[in-house]
Amino acid sequence: MLSLRFVSENLDLIKEKLKLRKTDANLDDFAKHVKERSDLLRESESLKYKKNQVSKEIGQLPPSERGKSPQIQEMKAVATQIKELDASLAEVDAKIENVLIILPNIPDASVPPGGGEEDNPTVRLWGEKPEFDFTPKQHFDLGEELGILDFERGAKITGARFTLYKGFGARLERALINFMLDTHTTEHGYTEVLPPFIVNEASMTGTGQLPKFKDDLYQLEGLDYYLIPTAEVPVTNIYANEILAEEDLPQCFVAYTPCFRKEAGSYGKDVRGLIRQHQFNKVELVKFSKPEDSFDELEKLLQNAEVILQKLGIHYRVVALCTADLGFSAAKTYDIEVWLPGQNAYREISSCSNFTDFQARRANIRYKGKSDKKTTLVHTLNGSGLAAGRTLVAILENYQQVDGSIKIPEVLKKYMGGLEKISK
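Given the sequence above, the corresponding structure tokens read:
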């Protein structure tokens, strides 16, 4: 969330940044609400000061005269006025809050301007596209022919966009998750956590999923509990309403969780296969940082995610999201897009973002300076390290052989019991 002071003092800047984001937000009444709030606050505080002063004066009167003082009745009227003003102030605060809660974060100055994903510049490429002497198949055909992915029975059990992993398909997904967790904990210094997969409304609001993306969330009937859309939500909220010590920053966590999303806005997209599922597995990286370090920490987080694909030997590119393609809470984002030869296209496998103090303000996550003892909002960051299902897709398509078998990447063999390849 943006601060009230920042928005009220920079309305023209906010409007300009929202245009870059291609986001509509009605700020016409916001300035009026802020002025009304200021006027009400000033009047209320003035009356409270007057009431306190008169109360002191009445307290200095002899006990026999206090009950007769005409100021007592006057103060009763003042107390009623204060109560009415505070009620009006609460109403105005709610109106202001309703505006602030739906405003997206401000893009960092380093974010390239653009109107959509077609304007996202490529930052770098890694590796080479594999060459085949046959026409490469897509992962869903490979998975069904090998008997390791069963989309029909997944749909029978639940519905569309659910999949049943079988045999070496299930083991490969598990191998990927363990490989990712081992790499991030032993090589990159992240602390592993296993958070709840169900969170409350406050946690969803803290990271920016609510109220903006309510239609994409699975809510438990009759409760303010939600299935998590990403581990970002529970892990970021580990420190909600807490004050950290400066010397304890940065803090870096990695978590495996299943993720649940309705994909309400993706009707007709990626209907077949694992690319866009309502339930999928992901290994998430989350950081808490001092403000002056957060953009350096973003670069490190991005590199940590890239290492997974480098170890797997899979070609990818990194793109910087332009202003119009940024997520709601992000100030800056890089996407890692993996090459899928079966689709002859790059597909996103990780988004790595710096949210600056946007989430921290919503979740009230702060730190205390070691020398000045000043309390400041932390900066939060997160990124997929990586999405397990999409990484499995990349392995199937990049390591496929002419006979339909799948070679196992060298780094995964120990997680697969020494298996060399998955065959029919």
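The mean pLDDT is 94. Try to locate this feature in the token string yourself.
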